[in-house]
Each structure stands twice: as structure tokens, then as C-alpha cells.
Amino acid sequence: MTQSAYIHFKSDSFPIIPGEDEETNPGLFGKSLAEWLSLRLQEKGLVPEEVIAEDFGWCVPVPCPPYRAYVACGVSREAGSDWGVYAFAEGGLFSRLIGRDKRAETLSSLYATVKICLEEAPEIRNLRQESE
Hints:
Elements: E1 2-3, E2 7-10, E3 28-29, H1 31-43, E4 52-54, E5 57-64, E6 67-76, E7 82-90, H2 93-97, H3 103-120, E8 125-129
């Protein structure tokens, strides 16, 4: 798996949906953020799939053939309005074996789009990027 840096920010615009953490590990939230980000990515010309729950939070799957890319979204109950997102890509075993792995480029493009979506949103504040 190839992963981007984390983007952290504050926002009060993503309500916790009752019971959403039953699909993830207890106390992890982010479904409303993932749904919001999925819509913003569509506006930027990407075609995200339906938001999915993972044990670490909520993901927006973004097909980037031949890879599978995702944007992970989450907050813990203790963090309140402190959110975090990062992108990651899976797949491409054959391309890695023959030395033509382009996941980094795919991931870089997706990450840049996610960052633009967040920077343009008035409901997002204190945006900061964590080193990889």
C-alpha cells in the first residue's frame, strides 16, 4: 500500500450519524465527512464509488485503474471537531514486478484534488498537512 501525508483540519459541519461507529471500531466516526468529500470529488471530475466503512474509519473509494485508491476520513469521539484525511492506493502487483509502478503518481493527483476540495470549503478551518 502507498499512502499520502495526513491532512488535519477543524470543522463543525460533519455531524456524527447515530450508530455509524457500529460499522467501524468503536468511537471512530467520519461517515458524513466521507459523503461530503465524495460529492466534492465528483464536482472535480472524479467518479468515487459509494462510501464504505473500514475498521479504521470511513473511506471514499476512487477507481484509478489499474489501482484501487481510497480517501480515508475520520475523527475520534475525543477529538470532536478535529478531522483527518489521507489517501492510499492498493494494487498494481504486476506493474510493481516489472518496474512500472505508477501508484505514487496516481496517489499524488488524488491527494492534490482532496486538498483543493478542503482548501476551497469555507466550513474547513486550520488546515494543516502532516509530514509523510
